Amino acid sequence: MSVLIRRSEIEDQKGLTALISKSGGPSTYRKRFGSYNFAQLIESGFISLTASHSEQRKRLLGYLTLNDSPRGYSHGSEKWLAYFQEAYEVDTHSSNTLWVDFLVADEEMAAETLQTMLTTVYDALPSIDYIVMNLDANDENAALTFDTLPEASLADDSEAASDFSSMVFKLHTRESVIPTLSIRAACVEDHDDLVPIFDQQSEVLSSNYGDFFLAEMIAAQDKGNKALVGLNKQDRACGLMAVSNDVELTMLQTCFHLESYDYLCKLPEDETYDQLAMQGGAVEDDLKGLDIEEEKEEVEAPPPVLAKEPPRIIIAGAPASGKGTQCEMLVEKYDVVHLSTGDMLRAAVAAETDVGLQAKEVMESGNLVPDELITKIIVDRLAQPDCQSKGWLLDGFPRTRAQADSLAENGIVPHIFLLLNVPDEDIVARVTGRRLDPETGKIYHVTFNPPEDEEIAARLTQRADDTEEKCRVRLSTYHENVVAITPCYDGSGGETVKAGVSFSGEDGGGDVEEGKQDEKVEDLVVEVPGDASPNLLREIDGARGKADVFVDVAKAVDDVLASVVTSGELSSVGVYSTKTMTPVDVKIDLEETLAEAESNCFSITLFCLDSESGSRSIDFLPHAFRAFPDRDYCILTVPSSASETPLLSSFSPVRSKSGSTFSHCLYVLHKDALFAHQYLKVERFVEADHGPAIPRLIRSMGEGGGKIRDLIDMSKQEDDVPLDENPNVISFAATVGGNVIGLVVAHRKTTGVEDINWLRSNYHAEDFIAYDRHRARNQATVSAFAISPTYAGYARFVVREVMRLFDKTVLYYETKPGESVPSIISSQFVPIKPRKRAQPFEGQEDVPMWKRSVKVSDDEEGKEEEKVDVEVFEPTPDKGMGLHFITKRLLTEPKINCNSKIVVVGASTAGISFIETLLFTPYLNFTNISLVSPGGLNLDSGDNTMLAKDEDYPSPGRMVGLGLQNKIRIADASLLELDREAKAIVLSDESILPYDVLILTTGRSDASVKKVEGAGDGADGVFFMDGVEGSKAALAAVEYLTPKDKVCVYGNALESLTSVTGLLKAGVKGSQIVLVGGSDLGDAGMNDALLGAMDAEGVEVRVGLKAVSVLSDVEQCVEGLMCVDESGSSVTVECRMLVFADAHDCSPAVFSCCNGSGLVYDGALVVTKTFKTVDPNIYSGGTMTKFSRTFKRQPKHSRYCSKETGTYLAECVLMSVDPLSGGVVEPAEPPTFSAPRSVSCALPGGLFYSRISLPVINPLTTTNMITGGLGEGTCNRYCVLKTDPRGVVVEFIYLGTAEVQVQNLSNVVGLQEAYLNSCVGAYNKGNVSDWIDFFRADWSTAIFHDRFPLLHSSLRGLLSSDEGAFDVSLMLTRMLEEGKDDETLNSLRINAVGPGGTMLMPSTKKMVEANGIEFLRKNKVVLNRFKLPERNTLE
Questions:
Q1: Where is the FAD/NAD(P)-binding domain (predicted)?
Q2: Catalytic: which of 32, 376, 381, 399?
Q3: How many CA atoms lie within 13 A of 1351 on its CB side?
Q4: Is the model's pLDDT at 782 over the cut of 60?
């Protein structure tokens, strides 16, 4: 028989009460330990363990609660420390000693139970060496296995003599059960002892350390390679550690942020870390020895060194040469401003500039705009700030020699003139071979992409402009122009140019000092007569694939820009300098310094220890440092997918650099930290003792350091308030040997009773904290936490000491918008999700939960007066707040680091939900999550009226509350390539991102690029509603439209309607807009109302047309959209701006990656029941996936709630990466998703639209209940509520002139109508005239509460075993067996239950009422509109 030990739970109370009765009775334990409450002990104790019988799990054998100070001395253990130091020679100190708060053991098995519990404590907490029990001197309890300390011989005047004279101390030592290992050098004789241990762990060892041969390792020891063995009590080898001083530092310095560890080398005395940091090597990193909660302000930089100029590029090429594609790629790589003459001309006219008005007059007269005027427009545009700072790409100009000369005369000279050469025959073949399928709109090519189907081939047509004759005419004109302008750039033109000079205007004036303008220009003008003109021309072979062409294009540009920097070429305006700057007075070459520096570290190359001694890995480390006494750091690398071992608890993880492809994680240990536990002390901050050391910690931190200094100064105002009087603000210093290595500032401003109620109302704090066991006075908020990375492993001890000294059982940490979360907080504290809040409607008083109290209340009268004014942030729905917490109990349950490289591609709702679920797994700390998304999290997306809103995507306030931007790495890029074999992806910025687990959640977007010819050719004026970036680009282009320009919106997605809305709000007249297509709103009446609204705005709506190709002019500016109607006839819609918002599909780039890497794509990315693709390391979820056809009749994933699928996706991934997971469990069937999907948007005519739908709706069996209407004499709220035959609300649609609270209404969909105040019956009786008003009644606030689903599930569980409910269920089951349909069954149910449950048995009705009232009572802070009966009045 054996004893099982586990952490205690509140549910143990009943069994423990029985154990107490059996083991002496409550009075015995009250006498021994004072009054006790098991729930209180479990929740507020440092660690609580319960012992149970191995064969009878419900039989409890023992219980133990340990704390960090003796009973009766909650504010500190200084007295007992002084007593032990005075009376005994026992090396006890606060970091290695715990005290018994309560102990009980079954008398029949007391010795075994107690021994097992204590051994478990030492295993779980390796730093603990002693457990002490203080008893009354008259207590006869022997406390088996504890040694009674002898009576101390103390001087009569000793303070300890009077305080402890009535006590007996019993001491238990770790050495008695888990002895410290003896360590020595390994020898060949140890081999036989070690082989069984290595065999047992061979798989893990090979994975973590690679292949090895034990015997050779032991025999091959030399000066630089050592092997140490640990010996157990039997003097037999039980573990081995191999160490080496041969470390490849260059690789580690390249891949990891090692600045805080002096780059693991011995820097010269005159080249300190701080000097190296100044030159850019550590600008982004934490100050050495400091981890702080505030974002650092950039240190004022010394005078900058001028760097490369912004690129200035001109590109030319024949029609169909691929110039548009190369322009797109140049913009993406160099971030230059892409300019075409057509765009600039229209913009100048629209802006009504002087030259724009001149051009407008010329155009309206029917004449061509002269070269001088076009050049002036270009000169003005190039002088604007974006071109000056980013550089420019001039596309389509100059076309003639006159234009080229005009540019030179105005000082516009590029760095490079790119000329794409494609043979005429290739151009003709490209153009004349294009064919259009009029039925599908698909583009084919007779040579390069012919149709396989003969029927399709027979119906193909050719565009009128794609004939050989017209193509050769355009080519002839092009060649004439190119021959004329190339001498201006190839060095043979004999012209005087200003090499590399970019002027801001016609007079060449720039940002130069007054009185020195002429001098500056003179210095920069370079006269290059005759054949000495610089050759700026680079001819590129364009008759290849676009990727091959761009390789040459980019190389040509890079070479030219490099030569510009080398020659020292400068710009007269807009000096462009690099972000990282080098002080002119510090000439330190970081690479050279590190290359010459001596290594200061050694590495652990292999470690193995048997399971019985697993917690004693720390015993090896002192001896490892002695093996290399000249080295200060020990390092260890482990695979990112490996689980953390006890050995790593002594090390600090090192952050990898962005883009690092190093496959392992790096851990570092400084030798000072190894012995710090003996000297580490946390004490109240005293300026005289600790103040002088503070500047080293907070210097160079700008505002963040100033705030800490301010907080410390503020706390000094209460220096005279003793700790036991609970000061409002207090500062603590952590010291090692008198040196300050950390700071903590805490306050009670936001932990009064009302404040805690506010936290409970706004955050899921009650999921973790039993508030009835934590008084308000025992809670506080940490406002600053700084600790040296060297001692980061002692962060929990520092927190523990702060809680002990300040007498706190709960600590919080708040994060305001824009603030970062220090790594020490994110790794040690537990994040709390913000709760889903009911949305207040117009005219309703603000929801009470937003009114945050700022008073301090101590549960005691006369304690509310504040002495110190601490700044308190007051969140709003739009400005949320992040929250972390830790309790004393959680200090013994450290979070497990999960180092797996998890890469999420796509910031869709599913992707954000996935990340949120991982990061809020309370016992895990994910250190390596990366999000790849253009625009990042789009936290500042603004009011995007051109896009529909997914109501499940976090609001800006909730996003702040989640704090995702502080906990993950974000790459503002898109997916370009996927290499499954290398387990890496290539991004659009050419960076490589390795992964252990890849998550594809890009969602779906407009698919016109794949369906409409020319849509993806880069024509100016073409936009796609594929996300925030597309919306922003389209809105920005509106300012360049003239009143005569037409805008075409094409598509049948909801975004086609929102695009019209956005254009109207941006100032485009309705008469300028043509909508080709439109979207079904889900109700015929709503569709008619929308058409009427658009007609009133003047918007032309054309239906029955299918887009075929984009039409553009010779300057690659859009001219129109060619479509076919239902009869097959061609129809051209003229426009100068084209917005695609068509049916959604996987983006071409993602499809190319998936298809090219062998992932199965069948209309959507095919996944398994756990959302895996065919590659076990690649998962996908959201709207872009589908289950295999093996599973019949599965709904489209685009109908699922993406938040729900993202959560499930995270749960599936956790089965693979969570070290505590039991492994992947494949379900028998695909998961069932039931949450509604919610979308809302603004529509033309000042209308607002919302639609909330369940994944599966059978339109043939739903009942539509319509209220309200639009127009004069109505409430201007048109609502449709749909129910299925069972009375479940399956959909809610709204169209009206005012916004509604969609998130509130989303709680309605999916509920049975009985939960909704019998809404169906009320409607049928004519009592519902407006669904919006019906669901705004006071009764409905309860169903909007985020915990209402818990009440729902609770009632279902209770009713399943209730007699009255059983009778109703039995009747309905019998009717179902008789073949009654759902509608009949629902009618029978309504009759059996009755209105308000009047037909139920009294006991059933009472049970339902009692549970409902208890739910309201528990949530009365939020649901304050309900008047609740007294507890004893409910009958």
A1: 901-1192
A2: 399
A3: 22
A4: yes
Task: Single out the catalytic residue among 288, 323, 538, 1336.
Answer: 323
Question: Angle at CA 557, nearest 5°, toward 554 and 562?
Answer: 120
Tokens of 518: 């002429």
The catalytic residue among 474, 716, 1032, 1286 is 474
Residue 288 resides in a domain: no
pLDDT of residue 85: 67
- Grouping H, G, I as helix, E, B as strand and the rest as coil, residue 328 is helix
For 307-348, how does the pLDDT look when each residue is reduced to its tens digit (9 = 90+)?
Answer: 347 889 999 988 888 888 888 888 888 888 888 877 777 777
Q: Is 312 marked active-site? A: no
Q: Which helix (H) or strand (E) covers residue 237, if one does?
A: strand 237-244
Residue 1090 covered by a domain: yes
- Least confident piece of the model among 225-229, 304-308, 666-670, 1074-1078: 304-308
| Pair 208, 322 in one domain | no
Is residue 399 part of the annotated active site? The answer reads: yes
Return the CATH number at 21.
3.40.630.30
Radius of gyration of the chain (CA): 37
Task: Check if 1199 is active-site.
Answer: no
DSSP states of 445-483: ETTTB--S-HHHHHH-B--GGGSHHHHHHHHHHHHHHHH
Q: How many domains does the chain have?
A: 8
Last residue of a domain, one of 1165, 1185, 1217: 1217
Q: Is 323 among the catalytic positions?
A: yes
pLDDT higher than threshold 50 for residue 563: yes
* Banded model confidence at residue 737, pLDDT cuts 50, 70, 90: confident
Name beta bridge partners: 129. Answer: none
Cα distance between residue 135 and residue 985, in whole Å = 64
**943 contact partners, CB below 8 Å, separation of at least 6:** none
Q: At which of 147, 176, 205 does a domain end?
A: 176
Query: What is the separation, in whole angstroms, between the first and last Cα of the chain?
Result: 50
- pTM of the predicted structure, to 2 decimals: 0.75
Question: Do residues 667 and 648 make contact, with C-beta atoms less than 8 angstroms apart?
Answer: yes
Q: Is 252 left (phi over 0), alpha (psi -120 to 50) or beta?
A: alpha
Query: Can 6 be counted among the known catalytic residues?
Result: no
Question: Of 463, 777, 804, 1046, which is the active-site residue?
Answer: 463
Contact status, residue 345 vs residue 376, Cβ threshold 8 Å: no
The 3-state DSSP class for residue 102 equals strand
Decide: 179 and 123 in contact? Cβ < 8 Å: no
